[in-house]
Each structure stands twice: as structure tokens, then as C-alpha cells.
């Protein structure tokens, strides 16, 4: 057997570093007792540890760290994502006030319509490839009362869900609920009906809060009364896109159920699968509706 050039084996009988076989050492890891050279020595509370033991300890620490009910990481600020979403809505609202109706026309939820201002027979909407409208419309508001009510609901429901689910799961819940609201509007509303607002996402938070409270065995009457009032307003006030409210509500409840009832051994996989199934339903519904409108 030949040795690699420049790496001569140490004298027989001396310990060699388990990672660098050409280096002799008299130091051993305090955890596994493997010999380690100065390059591999990592200071510990007592003695030195090898890189493998340090990495293993870090992984075990992450695995045993406290988690939220849905498996998310515990954080100090449980309102961060809520505040970011609220700020985005306010920023877009200010942009709408500055830019006028054109921004609403370009970004609002619209299935399929002819825009004469573009000259000729120019169709716009989701059916014409403008899929971004399904999400951008959820951040659009024109009236102060509209954004006021939606942001009040976000601030009331968001932090509790963000704390219970974790930040990443809360973002998924909010965005998919918004998409589900736009999807039901796309499927059921008139093709040229323009709609906007975060109501679909907010109703998703309502549905998720009801599921969470049920899971925690809290008194369901407060959220039940609040949801009933909002549904009453949805179906009695004119000019409200009830389809977005119901779509967001159903999606939010379904996603939250998958998140808070997922078995701990397969929690992440079940949660990802739940979101994937809801997204798959959204995609299939949109494809079918698009074929109906332009096929």
C-alpha cells in the first residue's frame, strides 16, 4: 500500500486525529474520547470536543427545543408577520390613493373582461393569463372603512394564530386563504366582476381561529358570535364579494385543522400535504373555470 505524497504516517503507538490521519495528538474529545488535533479541538465547558460531537449536540438541541402547538419555533415577537402584512396593506392602500383607479383595474380580482381603454378588443383578467390578480387583489383597498375593518380583524386574530402556528405556517395560512377566496370568486362570480380586499384571508383567519379554539377546548361562543355577525354582514350588505369570504373561510379552517391535528411523528409532512391539497384544489378549479371562459 502506498501513502499519499506529503502525508507520512506518524510513528507507531501514537494516537492520530480521527479526521486527519497524518497528525499525532495527545488530546481526546471529552464526549467520545476520539483523538483530535488542534485544528479539530472545539472548546467546551470542560476540555475539548470534536466537531462531530458538537454538531450532534446542536442537532439534538434543536430537536428538543420548545415548539408551538403546530410545531413552529417559539419567538419573542408573535406579532411580527401580522405587522408586516398590515404594513403591506396600508402601503398598497396609500399607493391606490396616489395612483387612482388604474392600479385597482390592473391588480384587482377580475376573471375575464374587455378593457376598451387599451384600444381594440383587449381582454384582461385571470382567464387571460393574469394569475397574479388572485393574490395582488388581496392587498388592495379603496375605501378607508374597508381597509379599517379588515386590518382590525387581522390585528385581532393574527397574533394568536401566529403564536400558535409559528411564522411560516401562519404565512401559508394567510396566503392560501387569500388565494382560495379569489378562486371561489373566479368560479362563481360574473366574469367581469372586479373585486378586491383582504376579506378572504381574514375569513381564513376566522376559520383557523375556530379550529384552534376547538382544539384547545376553549369556549367557542365568542368566536362563534363574531363569525356569525361577519357572515350576516357578508350576505346582507350590497357590494360584498361573499364568494371570497366563504372561500377563505373554508380554506382557512381546512389548513388549520391539518396543522393543529397533525400527529407529532409526521407533523411537518401532514401539514405540507394539507396545504398542497388545498392548493391543488385551487389550481384545478381555476383551470376548469378558465377553460369555460376562453375555451
From TrEMBL:
The chain crosses the membrane at residues 80-100, 139-158, 170-188, 194-213, 225-257, 269-288. Gene3D superfamilies: Rhomboid-like. GO terms for molecular function: serine-type endopeptidase activity. It is a multi-pass membrane protein. Residues 129-260 form the Peptidase S54 rhomboid domain. It is found in: Membrane. This is Rhomboid family protein. InterPro entries: Peptidase_S54_rhomboid_dom, Rhomboid-like_sf, Rhomboid_protease_S54. One of its GO terms (cellular component) is membrane. Keywords: Hydrolase, Membrane, Transmembrane, Transmembrane helix. Belongs to the peptidase S54 family. SUPFAM superfamilies: Rhomboid-like.
Amino acid at each position: 500500500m502506498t501513502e499519499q505524497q506529503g502525508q507520512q504516517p506518524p510513528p507507531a503507538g501514537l494516537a492520530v486525529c480521527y479526521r486527519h490521519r497524518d497528525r499525532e495528538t495527545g488530546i481526546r474529545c471529552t464526549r467520545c474520547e476520539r483523538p483530535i488535533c488542534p485544528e479539530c479541538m472545539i472548546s467546551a465547558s470542560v476540555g475539548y470536543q470534536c466537531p462531530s460531537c458538537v454538531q450532534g449536540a446542536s442537532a439534538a438541541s434543536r430537536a428538543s427545543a420548545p415548539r408551538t402547538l403546530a410545531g413552529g419555533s417559539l419567538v419573542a415577537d408573535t406579532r411580527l408577520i401580522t405587522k408586516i402584512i398590515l404594513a403591506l396593506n396600508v402601503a398598497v392602500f396609500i399607493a391606490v390613493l396616489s395612483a387612482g383607479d388604474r392600479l385597482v383595474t390592473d391588480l384587482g380580482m377580475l376573471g375575464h373582461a374587455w378593457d376598451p381603454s387599451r384600444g381594440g378588443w383587449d381582454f384582461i383578467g385571470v382567464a387571460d393569463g393574469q394569475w397574479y390578480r388572485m393574490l395582488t387583489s388581496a392587498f388592495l383597498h379603496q375605501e378607508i372603512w374597508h381597509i379599517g375593518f379588515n386590518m382590525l380583524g387581522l390585528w385581532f386574530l393574527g397574533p394568536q394564530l401566529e403564536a400558535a402556528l409559528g411564522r411560516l405556517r401562519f404565512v401559508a395560512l394567510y396566503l392560501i386563504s387569500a388565494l382560495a377566496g379569489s378562486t371561489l370568486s373566479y368560479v362563481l362570480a360574473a366574469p367581469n366582476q372586479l373585486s378586491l380586499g383582504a376579506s378572504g384571508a381574514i375569513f381564513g383567519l376566522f376559520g383557523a381561529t375556530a379550529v384552534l379554539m376547538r382544539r384547545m377546548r376553549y369556549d367557542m361562543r365568542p368566536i362563534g358570535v363574531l363569525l356569525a355577525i361577519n357572515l350576516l354582514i357578508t350576505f346582507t350588505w350590497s357590494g360584498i364579494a361573499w364568494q371570497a369570504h366563504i372561500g377563505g373561510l373554508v380554506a382557512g379552517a381546512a389548513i388549520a385543522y391539518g396543522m393543529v391535528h397533525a400527529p407529532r411523528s409526521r407533523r411537518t409532512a401532514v401539514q405540507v400535504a394539507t396545504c398542497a391539497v388545498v392548493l391543488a384544489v385551487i389550481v384545478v378549479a381555476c383551470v376548469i373555470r378558465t377553460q369555460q371562459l376562453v375555451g
